[in-house]
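Quick illustration, no need to memorize.
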Amino acid sequence: MNLADLLTYADIGQLNRIADHYECSSKTNSKHELIQSILITLGSKSFVEEQVEKLPIGHLCFLNALLFDPRASFSMEELTALARQAIDPKGGQPVSFFRDIIVHFTKSGWLFNGSTHQTRYLYQVPNDLKVKFLRILQERFLHSMVNINEPSAYRDEHHLLAEDLRQMLKFIDQYEIPLNQEGFMYRRTQQQLMEFLNIQESLLGKGGWRFGYGRTYKEYPDRLALLYDYAYHHRYVTEHDGLLELTSEGRASMEKALEEEMIQLFRFWLRQYKGAIPNVASVVYWIGRCAERWVTVSSLLESIGDLVHPFYYDSKEVVFMQRILQMLLHLGMIRCGDSEQEGQAIQMTAWGSKISSSNVILP
C-alpha cells in the first residue's frame, strides 16, 4: 500500500507520533488534518532528501536493506534480524540498539504496522516511499562519482565465464581426473585445467584462510571455485569413487545459449556470496546505477562503500574490490581500465546494466 492508504488505517496515536516527529502543525484530535499534514510534509522531495541526508550510516544501511528485501511485510523479529544483518553482522550490538532504529522508522512514517488482528504485528514500508527513497539514494550516490573518459585500454571478459564452463566440462569429459582424500582436484590437475581456459588464475599458495564464498573456495582460485561449485550444484559433474566425472546433464548443458548460462551463473554467484556479503544484490544494483559511464573505483568506494562490511580477515576494501568488483568482471558485467591521473576505473557493460536493473536484483 501507499503512504496515504497506510495513514488512513493508522490509529490516532501513531499519526500524532509522526506529526510530533516532524513538528507538523495540525489539530491532534482531527485524524483528517493529521493525515493531510503528514502527506504534505512527506510529499516534499526536498524535505525527504534532508531526512535521508541526516541519517546515521547504520540507519542508511537498514533503509537500503528494507528497499531490496522482497518480503511485503515483516514481523518485529524479522525487522530486528534484518537490521542486525545490515548494520552489525558481527553481532556486537544488543537487540535494543536495533529496536531503537525500528522505532525511529515508525515515528518517521517509513514503517507501519497493520490495522487488523492478523496484521497487527506485521510491518511494511509504503510503496510510494520506496520509489522515492530509491531515487534519493541514487542521486546521493551519483553526487560523489568521479567520471572519466574511456581509458585507452581496458579489460572486458564478455561471456568468457560461460565459455570456460564448457571448456572445464570438456576437460573433465576427456581426462580421468582423480580427487584427493578431501575431494579436491590435485594442484597438477588444476594447472592442466587452467591451460584449457580463456581466463587463467594463479593457483592458491599454502597457508592463509579461505572460507565463506563457496564449497570449494578453500582449495580453488576465486573464478575456478565459482565455476566448479556451479557445475556441481547443477549436477553437471559428479564426484564418485575418488574421480570427477561429467554427467548427462553436463553434456546437455553444452547446448544452452551462452547468455542463458551467464544469467544462471550470476544468480548462483549472488546466492553463493550472500552468506558473506548479505546485501551483495543491492551493492550490485548501485554499482549499475553509478557506473553507467566510466567512474573511478575510489569514488565508487567512497560513495557506496559504507554499505559493505568486513568479513573476518577481509577488510571492507578487499570485499568490495576482490569479492565484488573482480567477480563482476568475470561475470561480464563490468569492464575495468586504468587512468594515469585517476587510477582504476570501471563501467557497466550493456549486459551488466540490463541484469543489474532486472528482477534478478529488484524485489
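Strands lie at 74-75, 112-113, 122-124, 154-155, 177-178, 237-240, 243-246, 295-296, 334-339, 343-348.
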